[in-house]
Design goal:
single chain; mainly beta; Immunoglobulin-like; eight-stranded antiparallel sheet; six-stranded antiparallel sheet; 2 helices; 41% strand
């Protein structure tokens, strides 16, 4: 009984340090990706999903998307993310990588943003769509091609149980469908159900563990992540450190060997929570006010690993577990420095 009590007490002491990630269940938004009787024949058509599995809100991101065609081949399809910006109004907020149709039936691809947002805002509503058109280049200089017809299968017309609306035009970031923009279903052939679906992940795709040290002025900084750690992107996954002392230098470091719990020094309230070897990122300045807890750092992890030759782990593959923590100067503290809590995330395609 004494052994059990001791074990429970130890677990209680360790609880603040242990990562407890909850696997977020992916959610499908769109229609079943199945063989349907018709291929769309309109060049450059834009499709907008308005069925019952939308809208989605943050936090989260698009993980994969799929469409069905077993006839055409060679043409390109480009995925789109729309934000609902008004009554009967949707605005393009992200353009994904164009994919070449193989004509092999169901085709699934990782969603990779080439322009626009990479994650969802909890205060906004989103749906998805696609266009029978390819894009080349990078933001802000995306170049659309002439468009293709006869690609994604659909059931129609006048079937409104799982509605996809359509418009004709070329999409760019900020393009509007509906009120104030391109008219939806203008030719009168509405009520289509397209074989296209988007898999979203509610995230946040990361979890905190360990506890932050307390600074000289009583600040306990917290590290969080914003965006998606998609290794196909060169930017867009920010590690943010909040509640820092103002006007302090610091940085984020990361490792690939797991978590670690060891005192920063015998008299420090901080713990080193990332197992060596580690990689230091760029030195930053917290801003804010001296002796206040209103400083912060923001470091784009994807940008760092893409632009730093020889960075630990680079080039990254999908599925890599990364641990990270912030270090900052605090001259009166033991070792003249302190540490935040830590974060764990897994890279995505």
């Amino acid at each position: 009984m004494k052994i059990r009590s001791t074990a429970l007490a130890l677990l209680s002491l360790l609880a603040p340090f242990l990562a407890t990630p909850a696997a977020a269940a992916p959610t499908d938004v769109g229609s079943p990706v199945i063989d349907r009787p018709i291929n769309d024949s309109s060049v450059g058509l834009v499709l907008l999903y308005l069925g019952p599995t939308q809208p989605v809100t943050g936090p989260g991101f698009v993980q994969n998307w799929s469409f069905f065609d077993n006839e055409s081949g060679s043409g390109k399809v480009t995925p789109l993310v729309f934000e609902r910006t008004g009554t009967n109004q949707w605005t393009v907020v992200a353009i994904g990588t164009s994919r070449t149709n193989t004509g092999a039936g169901a085709q699934t691809h990782p969603f990779a943003t080439i322009a626009g947002i990479t994650s969802f805002d909890p205060a906004r509503q989103y749906t998805f769509g696609f266009t029978h058109r390819g894009y080349t280049g990078t933001a802000p200089n995306l170049v659309p091609d002439g468009g293709y017809g006869g690609i994604v299968d659909f059931t129609g017309y006048n079937v409104f149980t799982d509605r996809w609306a359509y418009a004709s035009g070329t999409m760019a970031l900020g393009s509007v469908l509906g009120t104030g923009g391109l008219a939806l279903d203008a030719s009168g052939f509405g009520g289509r159900i397209y074989s296209a679906s988007f898999q979203t992940n509610a995230g946040p795709g990361w979890t905190n563990y360990c506890t932050a040290g307390t600074s000289t002025n009583g600040c306990t900084p917290t590290i969080v992540a914003v965006g998606s750690p998609s290794v196909s992107q060169a930017s867009g996954f920010n590690l943010r450190v909040l509640n820092l002392e103002g006007q302090k230098q610091g940085l984020v470091f990361y490792g690939l060997s797991g978590s670690s719990i060891s005192p920063w020094s015998p008299t420090s309230s901080s713990f080193l929570c990332v197992k060596a070897p580690t990689q230091r990122m760029t030195l930053g300045q917290s801003g804010g006010t001296v002796n206040q807890c209103n400083g912060n750092f923001t470091f784009d992890w994807l940008q760092f690993v893409a632009s730093t030759p020889g960075a630990l782990g680079a080039p990254f593959a999908s599925g890599t577990t990364v641990h990270a923590q912030a270090w900052y100067r605090d001259p009166p503290a033991p070792k003249t420095t302190n540490l935040s809590n830590a974060i764990q995330f897994v890279t995505l395609p």
